[in-house]
Amino acid sequence: MAHDDHLPDLTPTAWAILGFLSLKAQSGYEILRAAKRSMEAFWGVSNGQLYPQLRHLAEQGLIQPDGEAEGPRSRQRWEITDSGRAALRAWLESLSSPVQIRDENLVKLFFAGAGSPDLVGRLLEERKKIFSQFEKVIDAVLPGDQLPEAEQAASLGAPELLFRYGKHFTKSTMRWIDQEESRVLESLRKKDDEHADEERS
Amino acid sequence: MAHDDHLPDLTPTAWAILGFLSLKAQSGYEILRAAKRSMEAFWGVSNGQLYPQLRHLAEQGLIQPDGEAEGPRSRQRWEITDSGRAALRAWLESLSSPVQIRDENLVKLFFAGAGSPDLVGRLLEERKKIFSQFEKVIDAVLPGDQLPEAEQAASLGAPELLFRYGKHFTKSTMRWIDQEESRVLESLRKKDDEHADEERS
DNA sequence: GGAGCCATGTAAGTAGTTACATGATTGA
DNA sequence: TCAATCATGTAACTACTTACATGGCTCC
């Protein structure tokens, strides 16, 4: 990773949009759906971002309309330009910003962890739910049954790679939760023992 | 997790600030440092957020000044109030927002994955660097050598729990990268073989 | 009495979300 | 022909970051 030379200054979201257009000329809505299906878990794209960014990319000459939009609000297909492809290649070789995580459940665990094991247990249960939800999103990246062809084409790129990472990540987190849960159980058992000792004495 | 009953409407960052004050009465700067040391990896707190939020928490009656600030810009210590403690307890029992991840390197892998294995290899190398950097942040949560007592007290809560999670998380990610790297190597080997076949024929 | 860090604070900007408005298309 | 859904778009807001300003403290 080096030479951020002549990189246009775009947000990662804009680069992702350009990336989807590099796979196939498509409309904003199609991009939105493809992004939702294939990478929502690791980079969300909302429609409030999408349309302004499309216009911005067009202004920069990185994409262009493919055919005419029939009306003021009818479907407009976009295609990547040569300079768009070049820019995308450069972006792929440039330094990435560090992974950012915002994990409220974990923050709670931090503050609860010193206190009641009960609460920690409940928070770990919640965490399990959060991550099984997360796994559902991941599973949607590569559903067992076949997709309509259009959607398949739209989520080209390397869905299997993201899928493998997502699976690895969720499974590993689930394992950690199980470990912590048995730790909690043990600490409760110990407390019980101590209590019983006190009773006897 | 249930009853979000009478929860004041605060951002998770504000809750975290309140959480730190529940461990110990302290100044903004101390909170900033404790947050940086103990939970930066999973929830960053910046000073542009901190001071306005302190004032906001005070307006809500969840914290109060502990002693007087000597001057307009001198150290001010804050302490949590009873209603602050009650609110914090309620927050700990309330539903957490889902884990949010923004992972630019993974987005690049998605778009690179279908194309050149070389590029995928470089991106995996970058990922390794990103996560070994991440691990350094985690390691700072529980440094082998002892901390000044003040800092220890400030990062009470359950640093070991966050540490264990962070370690588990980074190790597991590193393992995945290794797997993917050998996958890349294999695909390069296959390509080579095919090439050799063509040469022979 | 000045260098450098400690500490508080703010202004400006960034990147994003949600909720809504509206037009176009489809199909019962 | 009406309802639902597809598709584009925007306004208002939210949470947050960076960079800077400034004052206070310490120690030589």
Describe what you observe in this structure.
- The structure is a homodimer of 201-residue chains.
- In chain A, helix 6 packs antiparallel against helix 8.
- In chain A, strands 1-3-2 form a three-stranded antiparallel beta sheet.
- By secondary structure, chain A is mainly alpha-helical.
- Chain A has two domains: 82 residues, Winged helix-like DNA-binding domain superfamily/Winged helix DNA-binding domain (Arc Repressor Mutant, subunit A, Orthogonal Bundle); 97 residues.
- The first copy, chain A, is built from eight helices and four strands; from the N terminus they run H-E-H-H-E-E-H-E-H-H-H-H.
- At the A-B interface, helix 1, helix 4, strand 4, helix 5 and helix 6 of A face helix 1, helix 4, strand 4, helix 5 and helix 6 of B.
- Strand 4 of chain A pairs antiparallel with strand 4 of chain B, so a sheet runs across the interface.
- The structure holds a DNA duplex (28 and 28 nucleotides).
